Amino acid sequence: MRRYKKIAEHRSRSVVDKRKSKEASRLTLHYPAFGIGRPFRYILEKFTLHRALIPFTLLIIISLAFDFINPGFLSAMNIGNMFPYISELGIIALGMTFLLTCGELDLSVGAVFGFCPIVLFIWYNDHVMGFEPAFILVLGIAALIGLTNGLLVTKLKIPSFLTTLGMMTAFQGIALYISHGFAQVTFLTESPIRTLLVGTFTIGDFGFYAGTFWFIVLMGLMYFVLNDTKFGNWISATGGNLQAARARGIHTDRVKIILFILTAVLAAFAGVIDSIRVSSAWPTAGQGYELEVIAMAVIGGTSLFGGRGSIIGTALGVILLRFISNGVILAGLPGLSYRIFVGLTILIMMTIHVLMERKIRRES
Amino acid sequence: MVNEHELVRMENINKMFGKVEALSNVDMTVNNEEIVGLVGDNGAGKSTLIKILSGLLRADSGEIYFKGENVKITSPSQAMDMGIETIYQETSLVDQVTVARNIFLGREPTKKIGFIKKLDMDYMRRESRELLGWIGLKKVSPDSLPPALSGGEKQSIAIARAMYFKACLLVLDEPTNHLGIEESERVLEFVKKAKKEGCSSIFITHNIHHVYRIADRFVVLRNGKKVGDVRKDETSIDEISNLILGRGIAA
Hints:
The structure holds two protein chains of two kinds. By secondary structure, chain A is mainly α. Helix content of chain A is 70%, strand content 3%.
């Protein structure tokens, strides 16, 4: 008897808001009262409300698994070693997250990551100008690249995939050409800007590094912008339903152009940090980053089709993929095989996300 | 010599797309507290005409008068500021964003924290809840997502949103196309309610039967030209059909 009462209750409740506390993508789902146990239902609901829980859970699982296989995995030293890479890719991924949310993507981030530091170092090494002005100028160049991407996509209506693909190829070529194929090496003496960009301090075994600081700061800022500002709402709307957004008077072209610029500048910033850290700028640096970063964002729950972006999810995606790459090697698996696991992760996560999406739509 | 009941007057509107004459010397007037049915077959020019009115397109020539004043409508946001809001047949809501955020899309209220402007989510939720209650969707939460709602509910929210922001002219572009009977009823009733609140509407549709019930006047377009402008009490459904199809009225 109780079973039937539950069904009736569910049918009449329609879309009722049970919890008034947080503003999340709140969608109350109908569950058949029988067949699924209460704890499972509770977990499923939590996971739907907070998509980032999926990569988070996977992260916990694989961390524990890898640490079990090799106790050095979760050591402060190992994690400290992973963090520079996590931070740099993370910075690019944050930009990409916003861009994906507004319905576009940028394949040229890897090329910008490699190209801008080359220019910076050439100028600095040849004493064309001091480091600080060169740094600003190089970010300006990145902004111009982003602007061009944005204009081509919004005004000429060339799909962003093609536009940025062309841009990527072009700047890979330019980087190789101006550097004659050689890495630009420089050793930046201690200067305030060096500390600001790549300074480190250690807490015990854990090396905390400026890039990580920037990553966290950017994460906080961008989370705020996406969720708590007008502009953030416009980003989601532009990606979710372009026509509806335009009809409400949102300047969608402007939104997209701004985000293209942001993405390029962040990629350049990450590239500069990276090259100072290793004291060299490779013309081929960043190759493949564009796809990796898109994968990280999408694993974290940002939709490839636009409208939904998750900053926390992206951060988790970045950490997850890096942990897997590192963990596979530390676990003693053949070093060349780590990409298999990364690929598997992408496939599994995407399957879960798509299934969740379908479940939400069906329940509506 | 302006009729004081007149809200919008479009005069001599011409629009060409390449060699195609989409609109040719079309006049259309909408008065205060009036529902005008803009009807015509596919390709008659209805969508083009209202896109010009809502700022998405510029007419090649012609004038638009709003509340007696000559205006040039250059963008959707300008049209919105004037009080002209368009509701499309495809959902005007963004599926990935909550109902509250949808309602305030483009006009988000903010509160200052220091020098930062943060979205005023409490205000948005409160007002949304009230708006939803007014439509009759009391059970819908402002934090729910559009996919959870039916087509009619979404259209009602879009219309209510327009009225909330003090629209005085609703342009409804085939709003009941995708809707079932009960849902269409809901939308039609709501348009009537809007009229009572002082909001005029231009109702574009293929379905003359839908609009016949609630419209006060009909403007009929055919091949880019206006072929009819009749009050409901002076005409019949058959006559309007004939005008749409270009058939002579049966003797």
